[in-house]
Write a structure and sequence with these properties.
The protein contains eight helices and eight strands. A four-stranded parallel beta sheet has the order 3-8-7-4. It has a two-stranded antiparallel sheet with strand order 1-2. It has a two-stranded antiparallel ribbon with strand order 5-6. Helix 8 links the parallel strand 7 and strand 8.
Length: 247
C-alpha cells in the first residue's frame, strides 16, 4: 500500500496555522482535534453513493438509478467540512487544494471498494466556463490533479466535455438538480485527442456530491463511450436534507 506519510516528512518541521481553527500546529495540516472532527459520521451508508442511511432506503439512489458504480467521500458536507469546501471554492483559498486532496487520497486508500489497482484514469468534473472565469481555477481539477499524483494514477482532462451550460446547481432545489445536468456532458472516444474508453475504469472527482445528478450525467457519458466502471471520489457528501446549501 502506498505510504502517504513519506511525502509529508519534508514539511513537518514548518509550523503553521491550522486551517480549521487557526491554532499553531506542527506541519501544514489540520491540528489533531480538527482532523478528528472532519471524519465522516459513523453510520450505515449507501454502498453506491455513500449517503447516510437512516430509513433503510437511499433517498438519492431510489430516485436517480445512478450510472456511477461507487462513491468515496472524504468527509460530510457539514461543520468543518462544509467550511473548508466553501473557503476553497468561494473564498479563493487555492492553498487548501493540497489539504483537501490529501484527505480524499487517504479516504480512497481506506476504501477497499475503490479498487485502486484497477483504475485507468482520474478526471475532474468538467468546469463551467463562467465559473472558470470568475474563480480563475477549477476546484475539482486542482484536487484531481493532486490526488492522481499522490496515488500514482493517470490524470486526464479530455475524456468528457461540456456540450451545454445549464443552470448553476447551487441555485436549484432538489427536483431541479436532478434534471439540470441532462445533455450537458458528452465524450467522443477514438476521435483524435479523446482516448478509447472501451473497457476502461474511470474515476470522476468533484468537490461536493449532493443529489448525485452531476456525477450520474458524467458517468452516463463515460459509459456511453465504452467505460466499464465509473467511480466518484468527492471531498464531501451532502445529506438529502441539506440540498441547496451551495448558493
Amino acid at each position: 500500500m502506498l505510504d502517504l506519510g513519506a511525502w509529508r516528512e519534508w514539511r513537518r518541521w514548518i509550523p503553521s496555522e491550522c486551517p480549521g481553527c487557526g491554532k499553531r500546529t506542527p506541519g501544514q495540516d489540520l491540528c489533531a482535534l480538527c482532523a478528528r472532527g472532519l471524519r465522516p459520521e459513523a453510520c450505515e451508508r449507501c454502498r453506491v453513493c455513500a449517503h447516510p442511511l437512516f430509513s433503510g432506503e437511499c433517498p438519492d439512489c431510489q430516485r436517480l438509478s445512478p450510472a456511477f458504480d461507487h462513491v468515496v467521500s472524504a468527509f460530510d458536507y457539514a461543520g468543518l467540512g462544509e467550511r473548508l469546501v466553501k473557503d476553497y471554492k468561494f473564498a479563493g483559498r487555492l492553498s487548501l487544494a493540497r489539504l483537501l486532496a490529501d484527505c480524499l487520497s487517504e479516504s480512497v486508500l481506506e476504501a477497499p471498494a475503490a479498487h485502486l489497482a484497477e483504475v485507468d484514469w482520474v478526471m475532474p468534473v468538467p468546469a463551467r466556463p463562467d465559473s472558470l472565469r470568475e474563480r480563475g481555477f477549477s476546484p475539482p481539477a486542482e484536487v484531481a490533479r493532486i490526488v492522481a499524483r499522490r496515488l500514482r494514477l493517470r490524470y486526464r482532462l479530455d475524456l468528457v466535455r461540456r456540450v451545454g451550460q445549464g443552470p448553476r446547481q447551487g441555485t436549484l432545489g432538489r427536483a431541479a438538480r436532478l434534471r439540470a445536468p441532462e445533455g450537458i456532458y458528452a465524450c467522443a472516444p477514438g476521435s483524435g485527442h479523446v482516448a478509447d474508453l472501451a473497457g476502461r475504469q474511470v474515476v470522476v472527482i468533484d468537490d461536493v456530491l449532493t443529489t448525485g445528478a452531476t456525477l450520474h450525467a458524467v458517468a452516463r457519458a463515460l459509459k456511453a463511450g465504452g467505460a466499464s466502471r465509473v467511480q466518484g471520489w468527492v471531498l464531501a457528501r451532502a445529506r438529502a436534507d441539506s440540498v441547496g446549501v451551495l448558493q
